[in-house]
Write a structure and sequence with these properties.
The complex is a heterodimer.
Chain A lengths: L1 H9 L1 H19 L19 H34 L17 H29 L8 E8 L2 E6 L4 E5 L6 E5 L4 E7 L4 E5 L4 E5 L5 E5 L5 E7 L11 E7 L1 H16 L10 E7 L9 E4 L5 E7 L11 E3 L5 E3 L9 E6 L5 E6 L7 E6 L1
Parallel strand pairs in A: 1-5, 4-10, 11-13, 12-18
Antiparallel strand pairs in A: 1-2, 2-3, 5-8, 6-7, 6-9, 9-10, 13-16, 14-15, 14-17, 17-18
Helix pairs in contact in A: 3-4
Chain B lengths: L15 H7 L3 H29 L10 H35 L8 H19 L26 H30 L12 H33 L12 H35 L6 H14 L16 H26 L8 H24 L1 H7 L3 H31 L5 H27 L14 H32 L37 H7 L20
The chains are: A alpha+beta, B mainly alpha.
Chain lengths: 363, 552
C-alpha cells in the first residue's frame, strides 16, 4: 500500500499534475480580491451605479454556473486522465464503445435549457441597464476625439475639455439619473468606467446614449476602451459624484467662473515660445528654461487647416516624461504649464511625430 | 489494339531545391505550408514578446506608441492570417488526401499556387516596417481609424496582403471541397470519413462563404483610402459601423475556421491514444455542421457596445452556438473514459487542449450575456478569451498534430522526452500568460494600451510577461527537438501509434503516389478494422502494438 503510494507520487505524470496544480494555486493566490484594495480578482469591483449593480448580479449568476461546469468538466478530464491511463504490460484492447444515445441527448438538451435560462435573465437585466428615464436630472454631452474628451452641460452652459493623467472631470449628483449623449469628432472611442461595469462606444456619425445613477459620492476614473491611435492609452477622464446639494453649489460656482474672463498663463512665469510648421522637425530645436521654477511653453501649431496635430513631451535624464496635453490643432496655440525642473539637459519631442525632437536646457 | 508506350512511372530525380520549389505533391506542399506557418508563428511570437516586454512595468519606454501599435497589429494579423489559418490548411493538405485514400489533391497546381501566395503576401505585409511604418489600426482595422486620414501606407499594404491571403484561402477551399467530394477511395462514404476530414470540409465551406465578404470590405476600404470613396468615414457620408458588420460577418466564421480543424486533430489523437473509437461519431459530425451554420449568425456579438446591434437575437445565437461546442467537449472526454490512455507527447497536448479550450469556451458565456459584455468587452478579459481559444485551443492542437503526424511526414519520431519538457513549459507558460488576463480585464485594464499607471495591475502583468518567455523557451526546446529528431530520431514504423486512419496504412513517409494498396473501408477506422478484425464488433485482437507501457 505504502509502496504503491510512493510510486504513485513518483510517477512523472503525478509530478506534472502537482506542478500544474501548484502554479494555478499561485496564480489564484496572487489574485485574492478585497473590497478596500482593488487587487484584481475573479469578480468585478463593487458596482458604483444602480445599473452596475444589476450587471454585477448577473455576472455572479453566470460566474457560479460557469464555475460549476468548469469544476465538473475539468474534474472529469483529470479523473479520466488518471483513472484510464494505460498501465505497463496491459495489452488488451479496451471495450470499443461507439457512444451512448441517452447520454448524448442529455448533454445536448441540458445545456440548451441552461443557456436559454441565462439568456432570459440576461435580457431582463439588459432592459434595466439600458433603460432611459423621460426626465433625467442631468444631461451631459460627451465628445471623444484624438485623444481627449469634452463634457458639455449644454443646458447649464458649462464645458470641460481635458487630457492627461486624470483628463476632464464630470461632476454629477448622487442618486439621480444622469443622461449621457455620445459624439465623436474623428474615430471610434469608447466611454468606459470600470466601477460602473459599463462602456459604450463613441461612434462618429452616430449619437449613442445611456444613463447611470451613481449610488455613493466618490471619484470614479474612466478611460477610452476602443483603440483609437497613438494616444489611446492616455485618454482618461474622471467622474466625480457629489450630493445633490453639493452638485447645485458646484453648478452655481462654475457658472460664475465661466462669466469671468479666461485667466492668462500664471503671471511671473517665464513663457517660452515654440512652434511647428511640418512633421519633420520643430521650428526651434533648442530651448532654455530657468531651473527650479515653473514655466510655460506657449506652443503654436502652424500647420495649414486639415494638417496634423502636434504637442510637446519633455523627457528628463531619468526617462520620466511630462506629456503636453491637449494636442495643438492646426492654427492653435496651447500653453503647457511645466513644473519646476532641476537644472540639466532635457529632450523634447512631439507624441504624434516622435521623430520631431529638440533639446531643452534648464539652468 | 494498338499499344502505346506509357511514360515511365515513379520518381524522377531532380535537384532537391528545384524539386521543392516546383512540387505539386500535396504532402510536400503540406509540409511547406506547415514550415512557412511555423516561421510566421515565430515572428508573431517575437512581436508578442515585444508587447509583453513593454507592459512589464508602468511607463516603460521599450516600445514607443508608434511602434507598439504596429507591433500588436502585426502580431494579431500574423498569428491569424499567416500562422493558424495556413498551418491548419497545411495539415489539411498533408493528411486529408491520405485519410480518404486519394493520390493527391484534385487540383495539384492550384494547390501549389495557393501555398506560394502565402509567403509572398506575408512579405508584402511586413514590408511596411521598411516603408514608413507597418499597419497600426489593430488586426480588425476598424474604420475610420484605418482610413487614409489616420493611418499610413502600412494600412494599404495590409489590405493588399490580406486580399492575396484571401485568394489563397478561396483557392485552397475549392481544392479541399472538390478533393473530398470527388477523390474519396471506394467505400469511403461521407459518414466513414475521419472527423478531421469532416472539419476540413466544413471549414472549406465557411471559407468559401466568408472570405469573399472580407474581400469586399477590403476593396471598399482601399477605395476609401486611395480613390476618395466614402464607404466607412462618416465625415464624408459613410458609416463606421458598416465596416464592423462586414468585417465580423467574415470574422466570426473565421474564428471557427481557425478552431474546427483543430477540433479535427483532437478528434484523431484522442481516439488513437485512448484506443477507443470517438464517442458519438454522428453527433460529432452533426455538431460540426451545426457550428458551421450557426457561425454565420453570431457576428454582431463583437459589436454589443456599439449601440447599433439588435441585442436579443445575437445574444441568443451566441449562447446557442456554445451548445454544439459543449457536445464536442463531452464527446472527447467520454472517448477517454474507459479507454487505455497512452501519454505520448501528442496526447499530452491533446489533454492540454481540452483543459484550456474549456476555459476559452466558458469565457464566451460571460460575453454572450449582453450586460456582462458591456463590462468586459475591449478589456483584457477578451484578450484572455481569444488566447484561450486560439493559443490554448488552436495552437495547442497544432502542437498535438505536429507530434502526431511528424513520424508520417519524415519517417522519424520526435523525441518523446524532449517533447515532454516542451509540453510542460508550453502548458505552464500558457496558463501563466493568459489566465490572469481575465482578472486584469475585470479590474478595468483595456486592451491595446501601450502604458498603464502604477497600480495593482503591475504584478499580474509581470506574471504574464514571464509566462510569455516561458512559452518562448518551450519553442526553443521544440526547435531543438525537431533538429535532433530529424537527424537521429527513432525510425518510425508505418503505424507507430496503432492508429485508425488510412494515412497510417502506407509507408512513413508515403511514396509520391501515396498508396500501393488500400484496405477495405467499412467504417471511419479502416486501419483499425484491418488490424483488430472487422468493423461491426468482430473479435478484437488481444494485443496492442507497442511495448504496452504508457510511461515515457
Amino acid at each position: 500500500m505504502f509502496r504503491a503510494l510512493r510510486s504513485f507520487a513518483r510517477s512523472p505524470r503525478i509530478r506534472l499534475a502537482a506542478l500544474i496544480g501548484f502554479s494555478l494555486l499561485v496564480i489564484a493566490g496572487c489574485a485574492q480580491a478585497t473590497n478596500d484594495n482593488p487587487i484584481p480578482g475573479f469578480f468585478p469591483p463593487p458596482a458604483a451605479t444602480v445599473q452596475g449593480e444589476d450587471t454585477s448580479g448577473l455576472y455572479d449568476l453566470v460566474f457560479w454556473i460557469v464555475a460549476v461546469i468548469f469544476v465538473l468538466v475539468e474534474g472529469l478530464i483529470i479523473y479520466s486522465v488518471f483513472r484510464y491511463r494505460r498501465k505497463k504490460g496491459d495489452q488488451e484492447l479496451p471495450k470499443q464503445t461507439h457512444g451512448y444515445f441517452p447520454l448524448e441527448v442529455a448533454w445536448t438538451v441540458i445545456p440548451i435549457v441552461l443557456v436559454l435560462f441565462v439568456w432570459v435573465v440576461a435580457l431582463q437585466v439588459q432592459d434595466k441597464v439600458l433603460a432611459e428615464s423621460p426626465d433625467p436630472a442631468v444631461t451631459v454631452d460627451v465628445t471623444g476625439f484624438q485623444w481627449q474628451w469634452t463634457f458639455d452641460y449644454k443646458s447649464l452652459g458649462l464645458s470641460y475639455t481635458g487630457a492627461g493623467a486624470d483628463g476632464p472631470t464630470m461632476v454629477v449628483p448622487v442618486g439621480e439619473p444622469v443622461h449621457i449623449n455620445e459624439h465623436s469628432n474623428d474615430v471610434i472611442h469608447s466611454f468606459y468606467i470600470r466601477d460602473f461595469l459599463f462602456k459604450r462606444d463613441v461612434v462618429p456619425g452616430r449619437v449613442n446614449s445611456f444613463e447611470f445613477t451613481v449610488k455613493e459620492p466618490g471619484t470614479y476614473s474612466g478611460q477610452c476602451a476602443e483603440f483609437c491611435g497613438l494616444g489611446h492609452h492616455q485618454m482618461f477622464f474622471t467622474i466625480k459624484a457629489v450630493s445633490p446639494t453639493d452638485y447645485q453649489a458646484w453648478v452655481k460656482s462654475e457658472q460664475a467662473k465661466a462669466q469671468a474672463t479666461q485667466a492668462p498663463p500664471p503671471s511671473g512665469a517665464t513663457v517660452i515660445q515654440l512652434s511647428a510648421s511640418n512633421t519633420t522637425a520643430f521650428d526651434e530645436s533648442t530651448l532654455t528654461a530657468p531651473a527650479n521654477k515653473p514655466f510655460v511653453i506657449a506652443f503654436t501649431n502652424k500647420e495649414a487647416t486639415g494638417g496634423p496635430p502636434h504637442d510637446v513631451v519633455i523627457v528628463g535624464p531619468d526617462n520620466k516624461s511630462i506629456t503636453g496635453m491637449p494636442l495643438a490643432q492646426p492654427g492653435q496655440t496651447v500653453n503647457y504649464s511645466e513644473p519646476a525642473l532641476p537644472a540639466g539637459t532635457y529632450k523634447f519631442f512631439c507624441i504624434v511625430h516622435p521623430n520631431m525632437t529638440g533639446t531643452l536646457t534648464v539652468k | 489494339m494498338a499499344t502505346t508506350a506509357l511514360p515511365q512511372t515513379g520518381t524522377y530525380s531532380r535537384a532537391w531545391l528545384y524539386d521543392w520549389l516546383t512540387t505539386t505533391d500535396h504532402k510536400k506542399i503540406g509540409i511547406m505550408y506547415i514550415t512557412s506557418s511555423f516561421i510566421f508563428f515565430l515572428v508573431g511570437g517575437v512581436l508578442a514578446l515585444g508587447i509583453r516586454t513593454q507592459l512589464w512595468v508602468p511607463h516603460n519606454t521599450f516600445l514607443d506608441p508608434t511602434l507598439y501599435n504596429q507591433v500588436f497589429t502585426m502580431h494579431g494579423t500574423t498569428m491569424i492570417f499567416f500562422f493558424v489559418m495556413p498551418m491548419l490548411a497545411g495539415f489539411g493538405n498533408y493528411a486529408m488526401p491520405l485519410m480518404i485514400g486519394a493520390a493527391d489533391m484534385a487540383f495539384p497546381r492550384i494547390n501549389a499556387l495557393a501555398f506560394w501566395i502565402i509567403p509572398f503576401s506575408g512579405i508584402l505585409l511586413f514590408s511596411g516596417f521598411l516603408l514608413g511604418g507597418a499597419a497600426n489600426a489593430g488586426w480588425t482595422s476598424y474604420a475610420p481609424l484605418s482610413e487614409a486620414k489616420y493611418s499610413g501606407v502600412g494600412q494599404d499594404l495590409w489590405i493588399m496582403s490580406i486580399l492575396l491571403n484571401g485568394v489563397s484561402s478561396i483557392l485552397g477551399a475549392i481544392n479541399f471541397l472538390v478533393t473530398i467530394f470527388k477523390l474519396r477511395a471506394p467505400g469511403m462514404t461521407l459518414l466513414r470519413m475521419p472527423i478531421f476530414v469532416w472539419t476540413v470540409l466544413v471549414t472549406a465551406v465557411l471559407l468559401l462563404f466568408a472570405v469573399p465578404v472580407l474581400a469586399s470590405a477590403l476593396v471598399m476600404l482601399f477605395i476609401d483610402r486611395n480613390y476618395g470613396g466614402s464607404f466607412f468615414d462618416p465625415a464624408s457620408g459613410g458609416d463606421a459601423i458598416l465596416w464592423q458588420n462586414v468585417f465580423w460577418f467574415f470574422g466570426h466564421p473565421e474564428v471557427y475556421i481557425m478552431i474546427l480543424p483543430a477540433f479535427g486533430i483532437i478528434s484523431e489523437t484522442t481516439p488513437v491514444f485512448s484506443h477507443k473509437p470517438i464517442f458519438g461519431y454522428k453527433a460529432f459530425v452533426l455538431a460540426t455542421i451545426a457550428i458551421g451554420v450557426m457561425s454565420f449568425g453570431v457576428w454582431a456579438h463583437h459589436m454589443f457596445a456599439t449601440g447599433a446591434v439588435y441585442l436579443p437575437f445575437f445574444s441568443l445565437t451566441t449562447f446557442l452556438i456554445g451548445v454544439p461546442t459543449g457536445v464536442k467537449m463531452f464527446n472527447w472526454t467520454f472517448t477517454m473514459v474507459r479507454g487505455k490512455i497512452q501519454f505520448t507527447t501528442a496526447m499530452l497536448f491533446t489533454v492540454a487542449f481540452l483543459m484550456s479550450f474549456l476555459i476559452g469556451g466558458l469565457d464566451g458565456v460571460f460575453a454572450a450575456a449582453t450586460p456582462v459584455d458591456f463590462a468586459i468587452t475591449d478589456t483584457y478579459f477578451i484578450v484572455s478569451h481569444i488566447h484561450y481559444v486560439l493559443f490554448g485551443g488552436s495552437a495547442t492542437a497544432i502542437m498535438a498534430g505536429i507530434y502526431y503526424w511528424f513520424p508520417k511526414m519524415f519517417g522519424r519520431k520526435l523525441d518523446e522526452r524532449i517533447g515532454k519538457v516542451h509540453f510542460v513549459l508550453w502548458f505552464v507558460g500558457t496558463q501563466m500568460t493568459f489566465f490572469s488576463m481575465h482578472l486584469l480585464g475585470l479590474a478595468g485594464m483595456p486592451r491595446r494600451i501601450e502604458d498603464y499607471a502604477p497600480t495593482a495591475w503591475e504584478p499580474l502583468n509581470q506574471l504574464e510577461t514571464i509566462g510569455a518567455f516561458v512559452i518562448a523557451l518551450s519553442m526553443a526546446v521544440f526547435l531543438w527537438n525537431v533538429f535532433v529528431s530529424a537527424r537521429s530520431g527513432e525510425i518510425a514504423e508505418d503505424d507507430p501509434w496503432d492508429a485508425n486512419t488510412l494515412e497510417w496504412a502506407t509507408t512513413s513517409p508515403p511514396p509520391p503516389h501515396n498508396f500501393d494498396s488500400l484496405p477495405e473501408i467499412h467504417s471511419e477506422r479502416p486501419l483499425f478494422d484491418l488490424k483488430h478484425g472487422g468493423a461491426h464488433g468482430g473479435p478484437p485482437l488481444p494485443a496492442l502494438a507497442g511495448d504496452g507501457g504508457g510511461a515515457a
